[in-house]
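Regression report. Comparing outputs from two consecutive submissions.

Submission 1:
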Amino acid sequence: MSIYHKGAKATQEQLIRNIAKLEMAFPKMQRDFFKILLERIDANNFSNKRLENAVNYVIDRFQYKELNVADIISWDKKINIYTHAQICNLIQKSMIKGFEDTEIREINETKYWVLKRDLDNL
């Protein structure tokens, strides 16, 4: 599950700031590229945090001459979610100590558990 599964869409201020960062980092990219990128960011419901993290990731690690929209849109952080039965199974197999090693998350009114160690590694 994406850690960005909830949250408001990126604000206009955040969009402007991050597109400006990309324009400075990739000055050879055409203006139309950024128009398409903005459209895809909106269509993919990027939150402020996901947008900021995606842009920073690309700026820090991109090694090619030309940037692609997918280089930003496809960026995401994911974490495993578990049912109650799956957590009980992990406890039984001594893979975790107990429920104190987990946190509950509610998705569509259903409870799931995530491992605290996975959250620490974000």
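Submission 2:
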Amino acid sequence: MAYGSIIVKRVEIKEFLDTIKEYSREEIECTNHTFFRLSDQQKKIYTPEKLKEIILFETPILDPYFSRNPGKQKLRGIL
């Protein structure tokens, strides 16, 4: 269920990766909010299926704020 753009819970990277591994491709939903910051060109590359593949099989990129502040490296997202 999508909650919009409200951060429900901040989690450590390891906790996020451990949690997301429990989901199947079919259980991950891509809403309009998923793509609203992407350019038209990026939207052609990062389709819902490609994003699901990245989430399930790669380590997601940290938010730039947290990358510049190593002591605060947490993923911002909705779980």
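Expected: both submissions complete independently.
Actual: both completed, but the second showed a warning that disappeared on reload.
Relevant detail on submission 2: The two ends are 9 Å apart (CA to CA).
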